Amino acid sequence: MHAVLVMILQRLGLGVLTLFVVSLVIFGATELLPGDLASSLLGQSATPETVAALRRQMGLDQPAPVRYWAWLTGVLQGDFGVSLASRRPIADMMSARLGNTVFLALYAAAIAVPLSLILGVLAALWRNSLFDRVANAGALSAISFPEFFVAYILIFLLAQSGYFPSMVRLSPAMSLGDKLYVTFLPALTLTLVVTAHMMRMTRAAIINLMASPYIEMARLKGLSPLRIVLRHALPNALAPIINVIALNLAYLITGVVVVEVVFVYPGLGQLMVDSVSKRDIAVVQAIALIFASAYVLLNLTADVLSTLTNPRLMRRK
Amino acid sequence: MGVLLFLVIVIAASIPLAWLFRATLVRTLPHDIAIVARDMPLTAAFGLLVIGVYVFVAVLAPVLAPFPERAVVGTQFQPWDSTHWLGTDRLGRDMLSRLIYGARNTVGIAFATTTLAFVVGSLLGIWAALRGGWLDQGLSRFVDALMAIPSLIFSLLLLTIFGTTVMTLILVIAAVDATRVYRIARSVAQGVVVMDYIEAARLRGEGNWYLIRREILPNALAPLVAEFGLRFCFVFLTISSLSFLGLGIQPPTADWGSMVRDNATLITFGNVTPLLPAGAIALLTVAVNFVVDWQLYRASGLKEQG
Questions:
Q1: Interface test with A, best of B152, B153, B267 (most A CBs within 10 A)
Q2: Who contacts B133 (Cβ-Cβ below 8 Å, separation ≥6)?
Q3: Least confident of A69-73, B278-282, B296-300
Q4: Rounded Cα distance, A47 and A53, in Å
Q5: Interface test with B, best of A136, A144, A160, A164 (most B CBs within 10 A)
Q6: Residue B306 pLDDT > 50, yes or no?
Q7: Average model confidence (pLDDT) across chain B
Q8: How many CB atoms lie within 10 A of CB A144?
Q9: Three-class SS of residue B194?
Q10: Could you tell me the pTM of the whole model?
Q11: Cα distance between residue B120 and residue A83, in whole Å
Q12: Alpha-carbon distance B124 to nearest alpha carbon in chain A (angstroms)
């Protein structure tokens, strides 16, 4: 148990270091802003005095390391500063939307993960059959489609005839069932986009293992193919499959941006797109930090879990 | 069910097309290339055909388009008829003409971006592998840090800072994508730089630039070409998504992503026209993927024989 603890602590340390570097990159990118935040904010009406006053008010007269430290300590305490466009605290703008985005991502994951595992195992089981070919061709096409294409095809097929709403309006009073119904189309879009990747990688991981000697042995013992795949291949394919799942959940983070805009879903992605067109760098910075942290944490979790499932990796040292 | 029927018809029509195209290629090309074309799977032939049509349309856009790219030639949202084959858009511009010009703008910008990302990324990657030491370490750790942020999110951040013009779009996407190319190029080049012929060339007193150009690049080209196809798909989808979000290619330039965004309201009324530009994006990506699949298969097959 001791070795496990050391491993987890090591990975956590590495994760914290990565998060620190990510925050540095995101903050540093703002420093590339041509000209000055204060003068671009005031635009044409800027006089030297108002610019100087605004700079002092925003703390822009401080050197970059001091501002970075102030920003970082603020973020760690849940204070993301104020929006440049609306002057509202960013934390207030984000709090409800963050929950909505997490809800959508989890909803999509809850459909996509079991679905793609089952499809991947079946495709590996009936390799080179018609099912495998159709599933593979479908997956390759789904990977090649832009998310908004998938979304609009679904709207065309399912929303236009009135089965599901094409715009998502959420209210706090909604029951869970209503919420699941209203967000079904965006979740289905994300599911379709992500399932293709996961299915292909699950299939590849299992087929890779099917060539190993112990599978040959199990087959010679006369076990049924389903039992071989489920009891012998799957446990050993767990590490790559966990990695695949985490990678695609991380992919959901970027996919969510486009899908939220298509369905007018009140989430973080839409807020980010709105803020980019308003060039509200403070909000974009905060949301980028949240998305990037989620990405880093997911990869970290996958790393730890796949090491735990593989005894050989545990005893490497 | 109409959609399924449509799909079956499309697939049934594209198989003989791909077969005919491959047969023509085998007949007309010089013998040594024709041998390669003969063993091409039908999917790859189909992919090449589609890419060829796109290039043709993009080059000849002003000749093929019935109306100018930016001119308002009718009332808004006209249905399909004999003058405006695909109707008109939100402002009364001809949809077909904009679709044709979109091939030039969207594909052209994506191609330029991928090329830029490739030149920068692969040169830096090979250079890092060749020099090794602190330069390699420094560059690689820097790229690692940039890659810890999802690429779409990082692109959005950079676009906020530099503004959304076509030039910044190309530079931002190329910079973000160059990090991915760097990783591939570096790992491929690392396998090459340990070879004896590199050592020999070094002992001859050749410079770094000569080594990259004449020794490493020719030996690293095959995997890089396949990677170019994959990166192109990725860049193309990213640029289309950004344009769809209103943050990429800006109006009045005809572009497939923003055409979907502008006319999306039609979809809820059961009109398929806004799906056409999105379909054009999807078709090209599928086609490139088919060709890349074939190239990867060929590369791995050749390796086993050699």
A1: B153
A2: none
A3: B296-300
A4: 10
A5: A144
A6: no
A7: 86
A8: 22
A9: coil
A10: 0.87
A11: 36
A12: 20
For residues A251-289, one letter each, b for 16 or more C-beta atoms within 10 angstroms of the residue's C-beta and e for the rest, the string is bbbbbbbbbbbbbebebbbbbbbbbbeebbbbbbbbbbb
- Domain spans of chain B, in order of start: 98-305
CA of B189, closest CA in chain A: separation in Å?
26
CA distance A280 to A37: 10
Residue A159 φ/ψ, nearest 5 degrees? -90, -35
Q: Is the peptide bond before B252 cis (omega within 30 degrees of 0)?
A: yes
The CA distance from B130 to B139, in Å, is: 13
To the nearest whole angstrom, how far is the Cα of B122 from the nearest Cα of chain A? 23
Instruction: Let me know if A162 is exposed, middle or buried by CB neighbors in 10 A (0-12, 13-18, 19+).
Output: exposed
CA B133 to chain centre: 34
Count A/B contacts: CB-CB distance under 8 Å.
135
Comparing CA positions, the residue from B281, B298, B293, B286 lying closest to residue B243 is: B281
Q: Among 1.10.3720.10, 3.30.720.120, 3.30.428.10, 3.90.1150.10, what is the CATH number of B98-305? A: 1.10.3720.10
Kindly provide the ipTM of the predicted complex, given to two decimals. 0.84
Residues in chain B: 306
**Cβ separation of B157 and A152 shorter than 8 Å?**
no
Q: Which residue has the tokens 């018809």?
A: B9
Is A281 part of the contact surface with chain B (CB cutoff 8 Å)? yes
Minimal Cα distance from A162: which residue of B? B268
Please report, in tens digits, the pLDDT of each residue of chain A (317 residues total).
677 788 888 888 888 898 898 898 888 887 777 666 666 667 666 777 877 887 777 777 778 888 888 888 888 888 888 887 777 888 888 888 898 898 998 899 999 989 988 888 888 888 878 888 888 878 877 788 888 988 888 888 887 777 787 777 777 777 888 888 888 899 999 998 888 888 888 888 888 888 888 888 988 998 888 888 888 888 888 888 888 788 788 778 778 899 999 998 888 999 999 988 888 888 898 999 999 888 888 888 888 888 887 777 666 54
Chain B, residues 150-209, CB within 8 A of chain A, namely: 150-154, 156-164
C-alpha neighbours within 13 Å on the C-beta side of residue B152: 27
B107 touches B54 (CB < 8 A): yes
Task: Pick the residue of B144, B158, B161, B290 with the most A CBs within 10 A to test the interface with A by mutation.
Answer: B161
